[in-house]
Task: inverse folding
């Protein structure tokens, strides 16, 4: 059975894709793919997503140069989530952090704190683009 | 500003929560939380989710005993995804695998293969429950 036949897309034809850095195990980001974005990702080995707000495809790093080379694509028991192992060039987060998950809930349980250094400002990331 | 004020819930009042095993870095599963499920998770240090199909709360491991103790709760730059670090007791997947992501796309790019051993059958996991 085809891999694609195992997947359950939502009512908008989308499936969430968790992006994990293979070398470090860090979860870098989560974004959405439709079937065509998965096919482009499989074929090119670069992550392609579907922007729900802009209603168009986007390639991670197309503006910043911070691309993701795909090392493995797995999917869960329900077929409704993808987990993609990548090699990340530069910062994954458009705010200049290595991972988009750079803030954690603090001990109070209601407030939060930043948990990693900022590698660059958004202006630095996009200055030549 | 409260942690909760940073979060963007979808039109159903839900936010996806990626569950990662802190000790191994393995991504175990993804499930959905509403605000009350997050509050229960923060207060009890056990993962609570909202079942979209059953329209009720569920606690990971409430039937199987395979609970998840929360070690860290982070959220992404857009505030629309949670990443929760846990200590996992037993298998996270109801199909008896350590992680729900036990299948990967193979070299053909269209078929898939199982990538980890099955630790137990569903019957074994739920036999006394």
Result:
């Amino acid at each position: 059975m085809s891999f694609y036949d195992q997947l359950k897309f939502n009512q908008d034809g989308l499936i969430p894709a968790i992006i994990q850095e293979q070398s470090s195990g860090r979860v870098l980001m989560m974004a959405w793919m439709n079937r065509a974005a998965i096919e482009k990702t499989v074929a090119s080995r670069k992550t392609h997503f579907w922007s729900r707000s802009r209603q168009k495809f986007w390639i991670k790093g197309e503006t910043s140069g911070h691309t993701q080379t795909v090392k493995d694509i797995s999917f869960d028991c329900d077929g409704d989530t993808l987990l993609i192992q990548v090699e990340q060039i530069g910062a994954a987060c458009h705010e200049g952090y290595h991972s988009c998950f750079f803030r954690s809930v603090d001990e109070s349980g209601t407030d939060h704190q930043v948990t990693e250094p900022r590698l660059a400002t958004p202006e630095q990331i996009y200055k030549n683009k």
